[in-house]
Amino acid sequence: MDFGGRVYGGVFLLYVTRILHVPPGYQGMIYAVGGLTSLGGALLAARITARLGLGRTLILGLLSLILGQAMVPLAPDFSWLGISLLILNQILTDPAWTVYEIGQVSLRQTLTDDRIRGRVNATFRVGSLAAMLAGTLLGGYLGERIGLRETLFTGLALTLIAPLVTALSPLARRQTV
Q1: Are 93 and 80 in contact (CB under 8 A)?
Q2: Does 176 reside within a domain?
Q3: pLDDT of the chain, 177 residues: tens digit per residue
Q4: 62: burial class by Cβ within 10 Å (0-12, 13-18, 19+)?
Q5: What does pTM read for this prediction?
Q6: In this structure, what CATH number is given to the domain that contains residue 9?
Q7: Residue 27 falls within a domain, yes or no?
């Protein structure tokens, strides 16, 4: 998830600014929608998880995230259609990520003994940051070599690995944290 997400994220802002030509003020308003929808995701995370089960919530969260991210490279330009797709990206992506994060962190904390929880979280974070760094480097490289839109699609394809692996794991059947 972190690797593919950073391949995508490494060129996201360049694409929105240089290719779509979205002015900073519009970008700020679009990203504010994401902040509000993230809050909604946080408020609903427990109810969603209780209704769907943890495994399905994590998988659907990742798939919603990917669906939302797909809106960005589909945006043609700075038009009503382009802005609408960027807003739809925020509406889908931000709450999905929030619900996913709450679920996966809660699961990790539940499964980890109190005595080693800090070390487990630190180890997880170091691995995550390493994947993010490698993904950002690859995203920058690909953005320059194959283009920004193509790199966004590549990041999406790599990110699809996470819900696939989760769906094939025992976690997919887990109901509670």
Answers
A1: no
A2: no
A3: 899 999 999 999 999 999 999 999 999 999 999 999 999 999 999 999 999 999 999 999 999 999 999 999 999 999 999 999 999 999 999 999 999 999 999 999 999 999 999 999 999 999 999 999 999 999 999 999 999 999 999 999 999 999 999 999 999 999 988
A4: buried
A5: 0.92
A6: 1.20.1250.20
A7: yes
